[in-house]
Amino acid sequence: MGVLLINLGTPDAPTAPAVRRYLAEFLSDRRVVEIPPIAWQPILRGIVLNTRPKKSAHAYGLVWTEHGSPLAHYTRSKAEKLQSSLGDGVMVDWAMRYGSPSIADKLTAMMAAGCDRILLAPMYPQYCAATTATANDKAFAVLSGLRWQPALRTLPPYYDDPAYIGALKASIERAVAGLDFAPDLILASFHGMPQRTLALGDPYHCHCQRTARLLGEALGREVRIAFQSRFGRAKWLEPPTDQVLRALPGEGIRKVAVVAPGFSVDCLETLEELAIRGRQSFLQAGGSDFAYIPCLNDGDDGIALLRGLLARELAGWVAPS
Ligand SMILES: C=CC1=C(C)c2cc3[nH]c(cc4nc(cc5[nH]c(cc1n2)c(C)c5CCC(=O)O)C(CCC(=O)O)=C4C)c(C)c3C=C
Ligand SMILES: [Fe+2]
Ligand SMILES: [Fe+2]
């Protein structure tokens, strides 16, 4: 019996060549960039991969840790803590959709260790074709080459699960209690997506809206939603986080706490885009106090949440110790 936590992927080093390799794989995924390859690949190879890696490598350098990329470090730590929590009856491991460790290598190792039933757990509370579906696609593609396949289950999105909302509420309340100011507003920033994916039926936008609404109800205060990390020229989900942060002081909101509930662990998009650049935008626009509240990461709230979700999905396969 195995559980494979799957996250997005990250470069092996904060250098332009490593970021280039990572972006080449990531941005060639047709679940991520839905432009026909004949039109997109020349733009990707001719422009994006010649300009973005240097800029992004600099940004990665600002958040890189002694354990490597924060995304990989926290994902690994989550898997190790869940292994202890779920016990010897279940093998818990982790993989990345892009780069390493690969889904193919980890699934192969799990099968070699005797796992004939595997729960795939994409680490995304809100379902999105560009994240959840492509992670599962990759695992199914590995199985398509096997004569003797293991049985598979996939972790459903958990954007409205009371345990998820409860874990976010506890972590936000604890973080806010430790601040030396009282925030006028909690801003929930989710990764953006092209607007057209909403019209095409992707539930991601609705899942984000529902998470933010339930979180506001649980906290008993306004939680405003925004979408970050715009990529490319198409229209993205609105409002953009950086614009909201720049507009808040004009509304009289001068103390803000920003949280990123759509990211299971901190990464470039939260630590650099929100905690560094978001802070600058807000303070330059006249804000007085800014706090970035970390993701659930490998903290007790996050581990207890995932343990519960995984145990539920493993029901009938195993009784965790
Ligand atoms: C949490 C959900 C995510 C969605 C939805 C998502 C969609 C999406 N992203 C890009 C382009 C980029 N994303 C990048 C980094 C990145 N994205 C997510 C998560 C989601 N992306 C994470 C967790 C990360 C961080 C990775 C890390 O190493 O820390 C990047 C790379 C960084 C950069 O150069 O800015 C790009 C590019 C698109 C196009 C997209 C949907 C269509
Ligand atoms: Fe992204
Ligand atoms: Fe970004």
Short description:
It is an enzyme of class 4 (lyase). With 321 residues, the protein is an alpha/beta fold.
Textual characterization of the structure:
The protein is α/β, with parallel strands linked by helices. The chain has a domain at 162-293: Rossmann fold. The chain is 48% helix and 14% strand. The chain contains eleven helices and eight strands. The protein has helices at 16-26, 37-63, 70-86, 103-112, 129-143, 162-177, 196-199, 204-219, 241-247, 268-284, 300-313; strands at 2-7, 91-96, 117-122, 151-154, 185-191, 223-228, 255-259, 289-293. It has a four-stranded parallel β-sheet with strand order 2-1-3-4, with helices on both faces. It has a four-stranded parallel β-sheet with strand order 6-5-7-8, sandwiched between helices. Helix 1 (16-26) crosses helix 2 (37-63), helix 3 (70-86) crosses helix 11 and helix 6 packs antiparallel against helix 11 (300-313). The radius of gyration is 20 Å and the shape is globular. The two termini are 13 Å apart. The site of the ligand C=CC1=C(C)c2cc3[nH]c(cc4nc(cc5[nH]c(cc1n2)c(C)c5CCC(=O)O)C(CCC(=O)O)=C4C)c(C)c3C=C has 23 residues, from helix 2, helix 5 and helix 10.
